[in-house]
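Support reply, case 0932

Customer input (verbatim):
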Amino acid sequence: MKALYLIRKDIRVEDNSAIRYLIENDLETYFLYVDDIRDPIQASRGKTVRMALLSKMNQSLGGSIRYEKGRSEEILNKIIIENGIDILIYQRQYEPWEVEIEKEIKNIDIEQVVVDEYLMLPPEKGLKDDGTMYRVFRPYFEKWLKRLNVSFDVNYDISNLKSINPEKWKLAENYGKIEFTYLDEFFNNRLQKYEEFSDFPNLDNTSKVSKFLNNGGISVKEIFNKGHESEAFIRQLAWRDYYYHWMFFYPKSLKENHNRIYFQWNDSEDDFNKWKQGKTGFKIVDAAMTQLKEEGWINGRLRMIAASFLVKDLHIDWRKGERYFYEQLIDADKALNVGNWQWIAGTGILSQPYFRVMNPVTQLEKFDKNEEYSKQFIKEIVDEMVDHKLQRKIFIEHFKKGLT
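Our regenerated output:
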């Protein structure tokens, strides 16, 4: 029998249930990746990581992956008919556009096998006993830990995979190399210091695993098993699940305030551009925004500081900041990005209290006291563009009035 494996965000050959299924059922397999035009990754630097992972997987499979761009269901239908495919296998995804794609795929008249392993827990298993979402993280985290199945099964030999490799199916382009060596170094030498030092940008004590996880370049189960000795690290995987569950059940929250709040946002493009260019006059904000632009990555603490400044000091709509972050980040992920921005803005299902405003001066003193990090990225010193204490007061007063 012939199978078609539609690669989605499971771009790896290790610990991959779809590949294990293909081997165990002795299926001759075509490999296909569709660069779907509905995926917002098209407008993000994160696409370079995804394509590099695809190149790596393609090399592992002897050049068997076919690349197409368009609408997944239309391309699948054509290829299934042309090649006499008997079974279609693919991984479940949760973003609104992916849910739409999956609905269309299910209409194709063929036997289908759906693998569900992108998250530690699928959305349906992350709910309270009454079927609603948790609005406090701690009880969610406790239930999440109890419901996990973390078996890590790599018991298959990839050489037993029967891949069909027509010449015309070869991936058209090599997108460069991507290495995982930093991950090994982090888990071997830095994991135990993660909780204490991950917020300090000059110490660089984060795993940077997000760019791999977001694209399925490494399985979330493998990361859990590598990092399970640090609860602080594992909590990040639970947050990842939580925001995906939220997006799945409340897809409109990708574009709308989850909580009904009216706020008159500042629409000054000059203010927005100063923030993007790292010219606010607040050193830790400017260093973070410069690093983001140069490298496509900043740590979680810096993301919160920069986001808080945009929303609560400049009073600019969180959606503008979220969109810019998504465009710039090499680990771009809509669920996590929106979740974190709505948390900072005070508009999400789980939110930082609107009256809690990060002070960029005290954040610098706490996390970059000697300015070792800031000095790496600040190109020029500019005057502070706002009075933080005044803007904090104005934001709190206006936000409180907008609560409904």
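We compared this against your earlier run and they match. Two observations from our side: Strands lie at 2-7, 28-36, 65-70, 87-91, 111-115, 162-163. The first helix runs from residue 17 to 24. Please reopen the case if you see a mismatch on your end.
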